[in-house]
Amino acid sequence: MSIATSMMVAQYESYGAAREVLRVVEAPVPSPASTELLIRVHASSVNPIDCSLRSGYGRELFESRRPVKLPVRPGRDVAGEVVGVGAEVKGFTPGDQVYAVAFYGGNGQYLTVPAGNAALKPKSLNYHDAAALPFAAATAWTALIKAAGLNEKTTNGKRVVIPRGAGGVGSIGIQLIKAWGGYVATLCSTRNVDLVRSLGADLIIDYKTQDRRELPRDFDVAFDTAFDTEQLLLDALKVHTGAVYASVVTPRVKFIDQFGLEEGLRRAEQFLAERVAAQRALGRSYHWIFADMDGAALRVVAQLVDAGKIRPIVDRIYALEDIAEAHERCESGESQGRVIVDLDAAGTAT
Ligand SMILES: NC(=O)c1ccc[n+]([C@@H]2O[C@H](COP(=O)([O-])OP(=O)(O)OC[C@H]3O[C@@H](n4cnc5c(N)ncnc54)[C@H](OP(=O)(O)O)[C@@H]3O)[C@@H](O)[C@H]2O)c1
Known about the structure:
Quinone Oxidoreductase, Chain A, domain 1; binds NADP nicotinamide-adenine-dinucleotide phosphate; about 350 residues; 2 domains; about 25% strand; six-stranded parallel sheet
């Protein structure tokens, strides 16, 4: 299998609006470390966090805590073919069709990822559809399995509420709960009602035409994927039964951006501790969730996809050269499902 020596990849050298800062550049193809895979990427995606980071969100945290310096190469989801395998990697061979989750660099023709972040892609999906899943699946998995303790054995009879059900994370959350036999309520705008119904949601509140307070108050788990729903969801949880609130939309990074690293972290921890204590007094637990880059999640999700229990929602597919448009689409609030970036027509990699 021949591997190119250079590739085309999206990057930005300063923070700002998509059209102003995003460029496609030629760069050397990386080599995998001993625990990594080198993937020839066929499809990638744009997640909301890619757009936020490009705008400068989290700069204080990511530049000081992790060695993330400009230029930054965006893109968290990849689907493609393994073309290189590190010496210590087991379970993958060149030619495997995989999907994987990365922190950065997914919007490029080649990417190295830790082997633990990858899994064989669902056989029933093409690369574009597979690229819609990894980061959202890892996020839903971390919240539902690791924080809320839900799985195929514990979910039957459980009542779960997930706002923003048409989003990448919410849509997988709904499908996981339905695959495991639980009950799901969700919120969405009118244009997404049919979509979330098709995913299996049992109760749908169209927040454009209905009062959100119509949400019942008897849920076991609230998986918060939206910005303004925390109090609504806390009001909807049962008391003194071990109910769980788990949010992936947390203010930690905003505190750090506003107050600097040390003071921001201190304030965030204090904010979190107060909420944990308040919910503990009501017999509930309260969690902030940050997605684990978990290949195990991707293996199970692939099985559920191939069994017809989970399907990805793809919005539009953009060529790499249109990466700025792809970011704008993701930021528009009008997308329905994941915005995909195609890498196969991405100019010349030599
Ligand atoms: N903590 C973590 O590790 C982690 C990981 C992944 C994601 N997240 C966060 O979780 C949230 C959900 O992510 P996602 O990938 O599911 O989002 P997404 O796919 O972009 O969600 C899109 C949907 O959100 C709704 N929406 C409402 N207001 C919006 C706005 N101003 N802009 C865009 N969409 C809007 C729309 O549905 P309706 O029209 O039906 O409202 C839209 O269809 C994001 O804030 C993301 O940053 C956190």
